[in-house]
Amino acid sequence: MPKSAHHFAEGDRVRATRRTEFPDGTVLRLMDLGYLLIRWDSDVLETAHHSELTKLRDDSARA
Predict the structure, then answer these.
(1) Cα gap 14→34, rounded to integer Å
(2) Phi, psi at residue 52, to the nearest 5°?
(3) pLDDT per residue as tens digits for the range 5-24
(4) Shortest CA distance to 62 belongs to which of 26, 36, 34?
(5) φ/ψ (deg, to 5) at 37
(6) Count of CB atoms within 10 A of residue 35's CB?
(7) Residue 56 and residue 1: Cα distance in Å, rounded?
(8) Given CA atoms 14, 41, 10, 30 in this order, what sign does their dihedral have?
(9) pLDDT tens digits for range 41-60
């Protein structure tokens, strides 16, 4: 799935909308079929579908 179809890019800060207990994360790689490789701030790597994520604005990202 091209980047334009989901508006995420490598380096974007994201949040899992349905998993509120998860920390914020960073997109490491765009993958096929709309999946992204995410490194959550807890140092966990996971693939997640773009429909499960929300992009964070710069001023809402946690330090």
Answers:
(1) 15
(2) -95, 0
(3) 788 999 999 999 998 888 99
(4) 26
(5) -90, 120
(6) 16
(7) 21
(8) negative
(9) 999 999 999 999 999 987 55
Q: Alpha-carbon distance 19 to 49, whole Å? A: 13
* Chain position carrying tokens 């992009």: 55
Cα within 13 Å of Cα(26), Cβ side: 11
Name the token pair of 31. 């993958």
Model pTM score: 0.79
φ and ψ of 55, to 5 deg: -75, 135
**Measured CA angle at 42 (ends 40, 48), to 5 deg:** 25
| Of residues 56, 58, 48, the one with CA closest to residue 18 | 48
